[in-house]
Amino acid sequence: MSDLERAFAEVVSGWAEAGVALYPPSSELVWEVGAPADPAEDAPATSGDDVSADAISATTPDGGGSATATDDGASAVDEDPTADVAPSPDFAPSPDFAPSPGFPPSPGFPSSSGFPPSSGSLLSPSGGGSSGEGAAAADGAVSSVPWWAVVPTGAAPAPTTVPVPAPGDPGLAEAFGRGLVDGEADAAGASALEALPGGPVLAGLLGPLVPGEVGAATLVETIAAFERVASWATAMQAVHVRELTDRQGMTSRAADRAAAEVAARLGSTNAVGAAKVSLAAALDSFPEVADALTTGRIDSRKATVLTTREPGLTTGQQRRVVTDLLKDADRLSGPKLRNRLRAAALSVNPDAGVERRQREHAARKVTITPAPDAMAWITAYVRADHAHTIKTALRALADAAVDGDQSDERSREQVEADAFVDLFASVLDRGVDLAGHPLPTGRLARAGAQITVGAGTLLGLDHQAGYLAG
C-alpha cells in the first residue's frame, strides 16, 4: 500500500473512531470486482418504476471494474463470495432514523451507517485511471468509500523526489512551510491536500495554514480543499435538518415547521429554511449524491441540480441516471450537469421533454422584486418565443422614440426600458385594453409610495434616513 493510500485509509478510519458518520448509503447498490471493461461499452442506465424492481449494472469511471445489484440487494464478489465488510460499531444507525422508502438495506449492513460493503471496484486515491480512480489498493486492501464519492486526484503537481506526506506526518507541516521556496515541497503539500475528502481531518489541516506562507500549488489546493469542507458541512447539516424534520412528523406541515425553526435560528428568511429542508429530503432520496457531497466530490449547487426532480422520470429512474452522471460531476458545471440530466431523461422517457415543457409553461408569471435606490426588477417568466416577441417590439418602439434624434443622450438600454414603461402607462392613460374594452375602474390607480420621515429631519434638527414602506 502506498503512502497516499495509507493516508486515505487512516482518514476514513479516523472518521469511524471519532464517531463521524457518513451519509446514509445507497444500500442496495453493492459493487463487485469484474473484468476490465471499455468505458465506451458501458451499458446505458436501465429504466424501471423502482430501483429494486430491476437489476442494476454499472462500471467504474475508468472502466476498471463492473458492478451489479439484484432486486433483493444482494451481490456476489468474484474473489470471495462469502466475504462481507462489517461496519464499525460507531456507525450504528440512530433508532429514530427511517430509511428512504423503496431502498431496503443490504443484508447485514445498517441502512444509516457508512457506505455499503465495498470491493475492488471502489476507488482508491492512487489506483486505477488517470485521476486516481477505479481500483483497489495494490496489496488487496479495499477503500470503504464507493467510487461515486471518491475525491478525484491528478490536478495538483506530483513531487518527483520526495514522498507525499500523510496527515499527522511531521513532513506535511514541513512541506507546507517550505512551499514558497521549494517546488518539490510545494507539490508534496498540494498532493497531500488534494487526496483528502472533506471532513474534520481536512478542516484541521487547513485551519493553521496562512495563505501568504504556502506555495502556489498548495494555495490552489487549499481553496479546493475548503470547498470540500464546505460540502461536507452542508451534507452533515442536511442530516441534522432531516432529523429535525422527522421529529416534527411526516406531514407537509412538519416540513414547514422545521423550515421556520431553522430560519428563525439562522436569522434568515423562511425561503432559506425551506431550501435546507428540501435539500435534506432530496439527499435522503438520492444517497449516492449525498455520499459525493459528504466527501466533497461535488458541491451543494451540483447536489441540488442532480436531486431536483426531472419530469417524466420516477425516483428510481432518476437515481440510476444521476449515479451514472456522478462519474463526471466533479468536472462539469451545474448547467452542464442539468443539460446532461435532461438529455439522459429523454433517452429513458422520450415524453419527459413534453411533460417538462407543459409544467414550465403552466408556471408562467410576472413578478416584481424590490431593488435598492428606488428601483425594482420586473420579471416575466414566459415562453422563449414570446420573450423574443417582447424584445423585438421594444426595439421597434425604441427606434421610433429616437428616430434619428442625435440630441437624445439616453443609451439604447435606457430607451428600451423607457419604452417598456411607456407601453403600459399608455394603457392606463387610455383606460382601455388592447381590444378597446374599458378597464375595471379599480385597476387604474397608479403606483404610490409611502415614505416615513422623522420629525427631527423635517425640522432640520438631524439628517436621519427615511423609511420606504413595502
TrEMBL record:
List the biased-composition ranges (Low complexity): 35-45, 57-76, 109-125
Q: Which domain of life is it from?
A: Bacteria
Question: Which residue ranges are recorded for the region named Disordered?
Answer: 33-138
- Mark out the compositionally biased spans (Pro residues): 90-108
Tell me where in this chain the DUF222 domain is found: 227-431
InterPro entries per record:
DUF222 (IPR003870)
Q: What is this protein called?
A: Uncharacterized protein DUF222
Lineage, please? Bacteria, Bacillati, Actinomycetota, Actinomycetes, Micrococcales
